Amino acid sequence: MENTFDRERIAALMFKSLNQTLSPEEEQTLEAWKSLQPENRALFDELTDPERLRHELQQLAAVEAAIEAKLGWHEAHLPEKKIRKLYTRWSWAAAILLLLSVGAYVWLKPAKQQVAEVIHPGGNKAVLTLADGSLVTLDSAGNQVIAQGKASIHQQGGQLTYEGAGSGDNAGFNKLSTPAGGQFKVQLPDGSTAWLNAASSIRYPVVFSGKERQVEVTGEVFFDVAQQADKPFKVIVNKGVEINVLGTQFNINAYNDRPFVSTTLIQGKVSVSKNGHPAILQPGEQALTDKDTRVIKNIDVDKVMAWKNGMFNFEDVSLQEAMGEIERWYDVKVIYENGVPDIPFSGKISRDTNLNDLLKVLGETALKFRLEPGRRLVITK
Predict the structure, then answer these.
(1) What is the DSSP letter of 260?
(2) How far is C-alpha 26 from the geometric centre of its chain's CA atoms?
(3) pLDDT tens digit string along 150-194?
(4) In total, how many domains does the chain have?
(5) Which positions ≥6 away from 230 have C-beta within 8 Å?
(6) What does the H/E/C string look like for 54-96?
(7) Residue 361 lies in domain
(8) What is the per-residue pLDDT across 191-209, written as a single tens digit (0 to 9) for each?
(9) Could you report the per-residue pLDDT of 294-352, keeping only the tens digit for each?
């Protein structure tokens, strides 16, 4: 439709309509264009209005008279009929061209394209809530030392490290939270390390005292747990899931938009339980926990760990799952204009890519979308 009714073609048909030189086929095309939307018919009526044409001709005649006087032209030098014929033909043609060029430009020109906002990928940023309730904003440029009791917290770029905490101290709990578009790494007081994906959190004691080391998480967190055989490590996940470990590497995905908590074991051994029903995982296995727990074997570990390794891996994932990752990492709102389309989705791309370039890649699929102001990604198909 857009190619059939391009602006230059419609302007030419208007000109021929005013001169009454339209062919039957051209007349059908112009009528179809006028019927396409009310604005088109209004434009045609505006440009062909007799009163407007008469006014434009009067204005043009005054301009012509001034030009002829300036050039020293006199009608006595030319036959009268020829003057009138040339004058009338030129005046009408000029007036029509003027109307078409000005009117078509104002009415038919495409809307001014807004410069698309460049949405950059997420990065190292988080908020540390200390036991006394004070907040510390963290980002990739930070380099600071935070004193807390006998412990000191060192921030260097996107990582926190705890030093000097005595085992007998009880300094309360800290909480590290990442926003949408953020990620962070923390080395806990026992030497274990946790990587937080976007929109995630971990709550932990400043000192691990007692018979076990217990932390609480939301969102997605990867753990590399320091071995302490006499002090088991326990993770409490929202939705009532408990994960017990000794020394191991595993990933927890517990975002609220997912129907279950997934725990994927990379190395070692863990026990995943809910309501007192444990499931033991071996490396390469994944536990999916909702009302109960089921174990999936032979998991694609590289796919699970893609986020930590700086990649999106959309191989064999649902559109909603992929859009959930995009929402969290780019801090955008995904809106499904006509429901969630059933479109196969796959591919791998760096998380360092800005959203605009990522959308160019997605544009090569069957997915249809538009990026609106206010960081809104609208899926139309």
Answers:
(1) S
(2) 44
(3) 788 999 999 999 987 655 556 689 999 999 999 999 999 999 999
(4) 3
(5) none
(6) HHHHHHHHHHHHHHHHHHCCCHHHCCHHHHHHHHHHHHHHHHH
(7) 311-379
(8) 999 999 999 999 999 988 8
(9) 999 999 999 999 999 999 999 888 889 999 999 999 999 999 988 888 887 778 899 99
Tell me: do 37 and 144 sit in the same domain: no
pTM: 0.70
Calculate the alpha carbon distances from 17 to 11, 28, 35, 48, 90 in Å. Answer: 10, 11, 16, 9, 17
Of 135, 136, 191, 186, nearest to 158 by C-alpha is 186
Stated as kind and residue range, the H or E segment containing 242 is strand 241-245
Contact yes or no for 47/100 (Cβ under 8 A): yes
Say whether both 259 and 318 belong to one domain.
Answer: no
The reported pLDDT for the residue numbered 381 is 76
Asked if the structure places residue 92 within a domain, the reply is yes
Same domain, 66 and 138: no
For 13-28, write each residue's pLDDT tens digit: 887 887 788 888 888 8
Is residue 186 helix, strand or coil? strand
CA 119 – CA 117 distance, rounded (Å): 6
Task: Flag whether 115 is in a domain.
Answer: no
